[in-house]
Write a structure and sequence with these properties.
single chain; Arc Repressor Mutant, subunit A; five-stranded parallel beta sheet; four-stranded antiparallel beta sheet; about 20% strand
Length: about 220
């Protein structure tokens, strides 16, 4: 199945290079130079993923994704921007972005992030017992209590759920959630799994199981 990506960037050179690079990797690309053009493209076609710049004439990437999510569109979005401050990255993710890549970047990293986000697809509302995930609002509720998840914890939860009960190794989670395809020599995955479990309280280890020597899996029918 071919991935169809909307490339939204007002830099003609970058827009062209990214679009051509995607096509060379069998990914269909539709390049546009403004938010207005992006909105028009979304009305005419359905995209599997959107690459979105932030600073553009007339309207920003912030405006575009806000309108997109407000309209109920859950198409995955990767911000690709020179705005690399922590506050910018947090804002992009909280507005509904699925990933955030800072310019300049290596094309191979962009490709890996596209593949990781595309594997997650467009999640629908999901319920597992007393756990409910609303992807449009990026809200997770457990026993009627809204969990205050960080963007990384939310991404980790979605990756585990998307595996549909399969065990995900630490390296697979690093690639899917962090966009890292090498061993950073840290226990970042274990730390974030621990934090995510704490958000679940007593049910943390029931939903998120450790498989010794292999990794982690999400239990869709936890007991206890």
């Amino acid at each position: 199945m071919t991935i169809h990506v909307l490339v939204v960037d007002d830099d003609p050179k970058l827009r062209s290079l990214v679009s051509e690079g995607l096509r060379e990797n069998s990914i269909e690309a539709t390049p546009v130079d403004s938010v207005a053009a992006a909105k028009a493209a979304c009305e005419d076609a359905e995209f599997d993923l959107i690459l979105l710049d932030v600073m553009m004439p007339e309207a920003s990437g912030w405006d575009f994704i806000s309108d997109l999510r407000a309209g109920g569109d859950a198409t995955p979005v990767i911000f690709v921007t020179a705005r690399g401050g922590v506050e910018d990255r947090v804002k992009g993710l909280r507005l509904g972005g699925d990933d955030y890549l800072i310019k300049p970047f290596a094309f191979e990293e962009l490709l890996a992030r596209i593949e990781a986000v595309a594997r997650r697809g467009k999640p629908e509302g999901t319920v597992f017992g007393d756990l409910e995930i609303d992807p449009l609002r990026r809200r997770v509720t457990l026993a009627d209590t809204v969990l205050d998840l960080s963007p990384r914890e939310y991404g980790l939860l979605l990756a585990l759920i998307s595996a549909e009960g399969r065990v995900l190794s630490r390296s697979a989670l690093l690639k899917d959630v962090w966009g890292i395809d090498f061993d950073p020599g840290t226990n970042v995955v274990d730390v974030h799994v621990g934090r995510l479990r704490k958000r679940f309280g007593d049910k943390g280890r029931l939903y998120i199981r450790t498989v010794t020597g292999e990794g982690y899996r999400f239990d869709t029918q936890p007991e206890g």
